[in-house]
Amino acid sequence: xxxxxxxxxSLLGAPTSATxxxxxxxxxxxxxxxxxxxxxxxxxLGSCVYGGLWVGKDSRIxxxxxxxxxxxxxxxxxxxxxxxxxxxxxxxxYHWRDGIGPAAKRPKRVNIHWGNYIEDGSFGTHEFIGLCRxxxxxxxxxxxVGSSTxxxxxxxxxxxxxxxxxxLSDERSSNGSPEPFRVRYWGVGNESWGCGGNMRPEEYARxxxxxxxxxxxxxGTELFLVASGPSGNDTRWSxxxxxxxxxxxxxxxxxxxxSGGVDRSTSFAVDHMNEQLASYAKVEESIIHQRAVxxxxxxxxxxxxxxxxxxxxxxxxxxxxKRYGKLWQxxxxxxxxxxxxxxxxxxxxxxxxYMCNIAQMVNVLQSLLLTDGPEGEHCxxxxxxxxxxxxxxxxxxxxxxxxxxDSSPLGLSVSASKSDKELAVSFVxxxxxxxxxxxxTLKGSVAETGTAQIxxxxxxxxxxxxxxxxxxxxxxxxxxxxxxKIQLDLPRLSVAxxxxxxx
Length: 503
Hints:
Blueprint: E1 16-32, E2 39-41, E3 63-64, E4 67-68, H1 69-78, E5 82-85, E6 109-110, E7 118-119, H2 125-135, E8 138-143, H3 150-161, H4 167-174, E9 185-188, H5 201-212, E10 224-231, H6 235-245, E11 252-260, H7 270-278, H8 280-295, E12 304-313, H9 318-324, H10 333-348, E13 355-359, E14 369-371, E15 379-381, H11 383-391, E16 398-403, E17 413-418, E18 422-429, E19 434-443, E20 451-456, E21 475-476, E22 479-482, E23 485-490, E24 494-501
Parallel strand pairs: 1-19, 2-5, 2-13, 5-8, 8-9, 9-10, 10-11, 11-12, 12-13
Antiparallel strand pairs: 1-16, 3-4, 6-7, 14-15, 16-17, 17-18, 18-24, 19-23, 20-21, 20-24, 22-23
């Protein structure tokens, strides 16, 4: 371990100050910033669903038909473009019929992936769709390939999407949903190289073809099928998959990339923080490489690349898991900086990506909300939630080329996007030891004075807790904008977004 990793933050000294020049090319467009880049993921893992989003209709915790009311309100304010469920690893041991019909009659199963607890099935297909409707989110269902059959997935699609008249659609209606769910996104397995079957890519490709041929557009809902892609930048898996698919082309291929950390979330040493944040350069490199692999195949350019699971995965103490559930993880200033780095990447690579889903929405890993279990009423917006808020103005705008002159892993991270009359620019300073004075030059547009918000705390381990839920929140940040010039101060370990009228 490097010596500086052992030095307390208070002894690291005052940060240096530097000027960073940036060129924003409003005349050089990349592609549309799809709202789906800000997608989310929930799994039957720890207290993500049970005790997090779902408390039950009879709970003393304020709820909307069983959904935690405060969580719903926070998530509606943020906006949730798409939501993926039921896993994750849980998906490939989940049989959808276990989660329909009267809750009291649903079978109880052992969750073999996440602690062998008893899963009572009270949150099933109808409950998931109900949550998506509350949040105005597009549902994305992960189908079971590891321990199921093509027939089971085919029937789940018919149950969800066929309007009426078939036995399955009438069963859905009798279970309280006469209108079809119209689910477009379907994952055909999950992490088939690991917990989803421990397969070789050629094996999985054969199974994908077996399953996909029975996945039909029931009721006119055109399906977007997602094949199980690589862990990180595993081009061997990607090529094995594409070779094995032959002429079959899925709507998309999923990729998972976690940025690991060796410390507890709230006690990161500086060297370990820098190592984790620097990993986002590899995330961007992986997106570029995986896109190139897909594009090298005939009709491969038509296959969307999804970063289906991403985020920081820190060292989680056993006492936290015992108290709050499996993989319960606090989100800090460091976590928010990591989120900003990722979201900037998605803007910069907007022409290469189709969807990105952070893991996970509540309580688990890099969550947007934290709750204190099925009996607790606390629901806190994390620093990651606020980082996502900063990037909301980019949705559906056109991403632009940006030149920073610094491509180092811990250099200033910038992305920009525009609509006809508005420019959004997001900045991330991942350095713990350097405040920046940022000077931006616009090429192709003229800006008027706008507004800026910033997320920052000098302590990278600072977080929003149940006792202090607003320790780290968005604040207004002064900016200067005059014609083609923009200036703002960007302190160490901060995320900021500037909104400017342009012409």
